[in-house]
Write a structure and sequence with these properties.
- Helix content is 32%, strand content 19%.
- It has a 7-stranded mixed beta sheet, with helices on one face. The protein has a 6-stranded parallel beta sheet with strand order 6-14-7-8-10-9.
- It folds into 2 domains: 191 residues, 3-Layer(aba) Sandwich (Rossmann fold), CATH 3.40.50; 213 residues, FAD/NAD(P)-binding domain (3-Layer(bba) Sandwich), CATH 3.50.50.60.
- β17 and β18 form a beta hairpin.
- The protein has 459 residues and is α/β, with parallel strands linked by helices.
- The protein contains 17 helices and 18 strands.
- The structure holds flavin-adenine dinucleotide (FAD) and NADP nicotinamide-adenine-dinucleotide phosphate.
- The site of NADP nicotinamide-adenine-dinucleotide phosphate (NAP) has 25 residues, from α7 and β11.
- The site of flavin-adenine dinucleotide has 33 residues, from α1, β2, α2, α7 and α14.
Length: 459
């Protein structure tokens, strides 16, 4: 039945899409909003990126899920838009406007030899694995005592911390049983975080950095290579004024001065090292790094001095980019869809009518969950301002969308169906003393959402 109201599709049920949906329905303009996601579960990186031991952070889902009350925003999960799914042009026939909130899911590459060897992975795959993402059920190669994590952002910290935790520490989190089993069998004891610039240039946030010191059986080793003696850190503390940088330096200086303890696992913070090549024939056996020096502008230059670390796994945590959205302009340098106040614009700066962006696909892959609220609200305001002038869709009836999905062999997951999976995960968690245990296998997810016995045909 067509309601007569304008219809807006939000593609992506991560924080930015859900903040945008909330802002759209909070307005005085009567508008029907559907949030579509390629996965049967909502919340994007809150569910599949935020580290399992960041339990408090995940409580934001209570806010993000609010628009899905009865009769309000519809969740249409399990629906991929674009390549391999429903073409954007077909979707447009059902909606007055489309807000793209698909994030930036592609790991940036280092562009060095050996990067494609088994045992070299992007953070997306390893984070997806421990977060129970259905695209990443295969375990990384943990049969190695030493791992390198390249990067100095919070994702690098997350990966280093999760790998250095004991499996018992993670048992009360939502990690799938298979992840705990793999960590129990794993041999990782030394995690080397490779940072190409100096301690004052890290992108870590101080709370997350300090957290490295709170692990049950791991200690932090800040390496003193002559370039970075404890004294040098103290000197930096004297000169640096930025609060975040000072807080990071204070934590690093404490660790640099500490006497080594007896923990069985170590997180090594190695500054001024840039990866040059990854070694190995059948799989990773090491990584060669070049010592770097800092120019006055904070940029690094190579010194020509190389060293090799024997590691069996290399994780690059050097940021993300996005896949272009077929039919929309794309800036490969920033990994974003160009826009003005959330309105998609073409190369000539002309607005593409009815197409909007928000979140990481709009701004690029930086910022915490709350950062997405501001631009989601701005994008929603642009949509609401434009709606009166936008032509109605060719197929305004909600039932027509069901027919489109059916024609593409897609059985959508509505909010009630997602709640069945949610309840199943909470039920599984109770047995392990965890708030929930993620179901990572897509067929099992679909069986749970559609209320089928395990192994039933989800179609
Ligand atoms: C590893 C990691 C850990 C993080 N941890 C924290 C943290 O602890 N605290 C914090 O504040 N911030 C954290 N962040 C940052 C935060 O997660 C992001 O700011 C936020 O998730 C970006 O929101 P988004 O909605 O733009 O993208 P996303 O969260 O990525 O959501 C995009 C959604 O779009 C869907 N989608 C993608 N393509 C399609 C398609 N073709 N069709 C349909 N649906 C599609 C995806 O399935 C996903 O649900 C973390 C980021 C990463 C990468
Ligand atoms: N707990 C949390 O709040 C949390 C957790 C995870 C993520 N997040 C947020 O999510 C966003 C993304 O995080 P992120 O860690 O992916 O990105 P990020 O903060 O941009 O960090 C990327 C890191 O990769 C380094 N890098 C880039 N290219 C490199 C190369 N070729 N060789 C070596 N190092 C390279 C960068 O170093 P340079 O600085 O030298 O360029 C930088 O340290 C951030 O805003 C982050 O704060 C938040």
């Amino acid at each position: 039945m067509a309601s007569g109201r304008p219809r807006v599709a939000v593609v992506g049920a991560g924080p930015s899409g859900l903040y945008a949906a909330a802002a759209l329905v909070a307005s005085e303009t009567a508008v029907d909003v559907d949030v579509l996601d390629r996965l049967p579960a909502p919340y994007g990186l809150v569910r599949y990126g935020v580290a399992p031991d960041h339990v408090k952070m995940k409580s934001v889902i209570r806010v993000l899920g609010r628009p899905f009350g009865p009769g309000e925003v519809r969740f249409v999960g399990g629906v991929r838009i674009g390549e391999g799914g429903i073409p954007l042009a077909a979707l447009r026939e059902h909606y007055t406007a489309v807000v793209h909130a698909v994030g930036s899911a592609v790991d940036r590459r280092l562009g060095i030899p050996g990067e494609d060897l088994p045992g070299s992975t992007g953070s997306g795959a390893i984070v997806g694995w421990y977060c129970g993402h259905p695209d990443h059920v295969a375990a990384p190669l943990l049969d190695t005592p030493a791992v390198a994590v390249v990067g100095a952002g919070n994702v690098a910290l997350d990966v280093a911390r999760v790998l250095a935790r004991t499996p018992d520490e993670l048992a009360s989190t939502d990690v799938p049983d298979a992840v705990l089993d793999a960590l129990r069998l794993g041999r990782v004891r030394d995690v080397h975080v490779l940072i190409r610039r100096g301690p004052q240039h890290v992108k870590f946030t101080p709370v997350e950095l300090r957290q490295l010191g709170d692990l049950a059986d791991a200690e932090v080793v800040v390496h003193d290579d002559g370039l970075l003696a404890g004294g040098a850190l103290d000197d930096l503390l004297e000169t640096v004024t930025d609060r975040r940088e000072r807080a990071n330096l204070a934590a690093l200086a404490e660790w640099a001065h500490a006497t080594p303890g007896h923990a069985t696992r170590r997180i090594h913070l190695r500054f001024l090292r840039s990866p040059v090549r990854i070694l190995g024939t059948d799989r990773v056996t090491g990584i060669v790094v070049e010592r770097t020096a800092l120019g006055a502008d904070g940029r690094v230059r190579g010194t020509g001095e190389e060293e090799t670390l024997d590691v069996g796994l290399v994780v690059r945590a050097v940021g993300y980019t996005a896949v272009p959205i077929a039919g929309l302009p794309f800036d490969p340098d920033t990994g974003t869809v160009p826009s003005v106040a959330g309105r998609v614009v073409d190369a000539a700066g002309e607005v593409v009518p009815g197409e909007y962006v928000t979140g990481w696909i709009r701004r690029g892959p930086t910022g915490v969950i709350g950062t997405n609220k501001h631009d989601a609200v701005e994008t929603a305001a642009s949509v609401l301002a434009d709606l009166p002038a936008l032509p109605p869709p060719a197929h305004p009836d909600a039932d027509d969308l069901a027919a489109l999905l059916d024609a593409h062999g897609v059985r959508p997951v509505d909010w009630t169906a997602w709640l069945r999976l949610d309840a199943e995960e909470i039920r599984l968690g109770a047995a392990r003393g965890a708030e929930r245990i993620k179901v990572a296998d897509l067929q099992e997810m679909l069986a749970a959402v559609h209320g089928l016995p395990a192994g039933g045909d989800p179609r």
